[in-house]
Structure formats: structure tokens, C-alpha cells
Amino acid sequence: MIGINIKLVRVDSRLLHATVQLNWNQFINADQVWVVSPHYVEDPFIANVMQLCLPKTMKVNFYSVEQLMEQLQMKANTKVMIIFPNLEIVEKAVRLGFYTKEIQLPYPASRVMLKSLTEYFSQEDIKRIRYIQEQNIKLFFQTTPYDNKDYTIFTK
């Protein structure tokens, strides 16, 4: 089948960094990383720095939400990892028709057992999470591929 094959969707304010590159690349086998952040679309310096984090066989691209939606319509045979910096931009993409089965978030810095979303997310982000879930998209915590996917806090 020819088309965009989304291998992983991640929300991470750090965008593309060593943990993502070193841990995830070998497990997801993506050709490209798409960073969806309007702040960096026209910033060649950031693009060059982030490209240095990747193997030569992978390419990083920066898109606005609207550009992401255009790219997803392409017929190119491409395997991609999509990184959003925050839930606000994810919600905007979902409102414009972006769909994926699930979205990964890294565990909070303090990996204490979280009992509720309010311990980690703002009220605005909780509303975004619920909207995204209403679109039949699951969210889970997982920092590295060696961690189990943790859906529990998002189901409460």
C-alpha cells in the first residue's frame, strides 16, 4: 500500500532529542520525523540541529498543523514519526481531521504513581485530552520502548 504510514505519534515539549532518537528509531523504523510546531517551521538552524540527532537515512521536517494535514494527503510511501510539542497543537490537528489510533506521552519527570490527571495536567489540557479521547484516540504514558504502555491514568 502506498501512502503515509504513521509509526508513532508522540507529545513531547523537548521535541526531537537523544532519548527519542536513540531509543525509538530502532523500534519504529521510520524514514522521517515530522515535528508539528508552527514556531520552528521557518527556522533552518533548529532543523539542522535536529537533523544531526538522526541517522543519515532519516530526515526531519517541520510543519504547521495545516502543513501536516497537507502532507498526510500525499501518496508518498513514507514511514513517519510525528512529534507534537504540546496537547494544544494536537487538539488543533485533531479538530482539522488528524486521526491516529493512539498518542504517546513521556512519563512525568517524577515517576510517582499518578492517581489523577490533575496531578500532572492543567484543566485546559484535561479538556484537550477528553476531546481527543472523544475522537476515539487513546493516550498513554511511555518514555522508552522498554516501558509498558500505561493507559490507566487516562481512563479515570
TrEMBL record:
<keyword id="KW-0418">Kinase</keyword>
<dbReference type="GO" id="GO:0009401">
    <property type="term" value="P:phosphoenolpyruvate-dependent sugar phosphotransferase system"/>
</dbReference>
<keyword id="KW-0963">Cytoplasm</keyword>
<protein>
    <submittedName>
        <fullName>PTS system sorbose subfamily IIB component</fullName>
    </submittedName>
</protein>
<keyword id="KW-0808">Transferase</keyword>
<feature type="domain" description="PTS EIIB type-4">
    <location>
        <begin position="2"/>
        <end position="156"/>
    </location>
</feature>
<keyword id="KW-0762">Sugar transport</keyword>
<dbReference type="InterPro" id="IPR004720">
    <property type="entry name" value="PTS_IIB_sorbose-sp"/>
</dbReference>
<dbReference type="GO" id="GO:0008982">
    <property type="term" value="F:protein-N(PI)-phosphohistidine-sugar phosphotransferase activity"/>
</dbReference>
<keyword id="KW-0813">Transport</keyword>
<dbReference type="GO" id="GO:0016301">
    <property type="term" value="F:kinase activity"/>
</dbReference>
<keyword id="KW-0598">Phosphotransferase system</keyword>
<dbReference type="InterPro" id="IPR036667">
    <property type="entry name" value="PTS_IIB_sorbose-sp_sf"/>
</dbReference>
<dbReference type="GO" id="GO:0005737">
    <property type="term" value="C:cytoplasm"/>
</dbReference>
<dbReference type="Pfam" id="PF03830">
    <property type="entry name" value="PTSIIB_sorb"/>
</dbReference>
